[in-house]
Structures are given as structure tokens and as C-alpha cells.
Amino acid sequence: MDATAVEVEAFFAAYKQAFAACDTAGICSRFAYPAAIADGRTTTILPDYAAFCSDVEGFFKTYREMGMVDVALRSLQVTVKSPAYAIADVSWALLDAKGGDVLVFDASYILGRHGGEELKIIAILSHNERERAEGRLG
Fold first, then answer.
1. Which residues lie closer than 8 Å to 18 by C-beta, 6 or more apart?
2. Both ends of the chain: CA-CA distance in Å?
3. Which of 63, 79, 91, 116 has the most CB atoms at less than 10 Å from its CB?
4. How far is residue 65's CA from residue 50's CA, in Å, rounded to a whole number?
5. For the purposes of burial, counting CB atoms within 10 Å of the CB of 110, is it exposed (0-12), middle (13-18) or buried (19 or more)?
6. CA–CA separation, 135 vs 138, rounded Å?
7. What is the pTM of this model?
8. DSSP readout, the chain?
């Protein structure tokens, strides 16, 4: 099956639901391992599902401490690069109980399909999440 913009949009609709629910398994199952996250300061290799799940739990704990109760996918721009790969530029907003912004950040996701599998995240380029979160946390 070729990667299509519709498939990537459906992928991120499900990813957003997992993110909003703080569903660790729902997030971690959408990655191909090993995967990578780069944020301009460091590049972290995600060796396997179990190791990344521990990290995701920490992210969710921090987000909840910041007041997050929901997540909005503010924008999604998809570029299909080949039948197996796509790039998605995403703008996220973590929302508080009143629907106000807790944290807004942007990331680019490289998605791929290996051996006919469903699309998975191969890498994330986190453009400004760390800086904005650090500014929010003080």
C-alpha cells in the first residue's frame, strides 16, 4: 500500500486521540524501532518499545503537571515523498480545562512503511517544544 495524504491524516487523528488520553501504548505502538527524536540540542535514539514507553510516561506526567487535559492538532501539512515515506509538519496545542493553551509547539514527523507494514514514525524533528516547555516550567 502506498503512503497517501489521507492515510497520514488518519494516522495523526488516531495519534492525537492517544496523545489526548495520555495513552502510552497508543503512542509507542506508532513508532518503528529504532527511531529518533531530534530537538536542535540533542538527538535521542529510541531503541525499543519498552524503553520509549518509560520516556512517554514522563512526558505525560510533565504535561499534566503543566495543566494539560486535552490536545489539539492545530495544523497538519503532509508531503508524500514516495510510496513508502511521508513527512508530516504538525502544530500541536496542549489545552487546559478551559480550552486555553498550555503549550503550543511544532514538529515534523518522518513516517515510513517497512516491508509492507502500516505507517510508523521513524523520526521526529521537534522544532520548539523543549524551549517552550522550559519557558513554561521556569
1. 26, 27, 30
2. 46
3. 63
4. 23
5. middle
6. 5
7. 0.93
8. ----HHHHHHHHHHHHHHHHTT-HHHHHTTEEEEEEEE-SS-EEEE--HHHHHHHHHHHHHHHHHTT--EEEEEEEEEEE-SSSEEEEEEEEEEE-TTS-EEEEEEEEEEEE-STTPPPEEEEEEESSHHHHHHHHH-
Q: How far apart are CA 68 and CA 78, in angstroms?
A: 26
CA angle in degrees (0–180, nearest 5) for 130-135-138: 120
Calculate Rg over the CA atoms of the chain. Answer: 15
For 41, the grid coordinates are 540540542
- Report the alpha-carbon distance of residue 74 to residue 53 in Å, rounded: 25
28 grid coordinates: 509507542
pLDDT of residue 1: 52
Over the stretch 102-129, which tens digit does the pLDDT of each residue have?
999 999 999 998 766 789 999 999 998 8
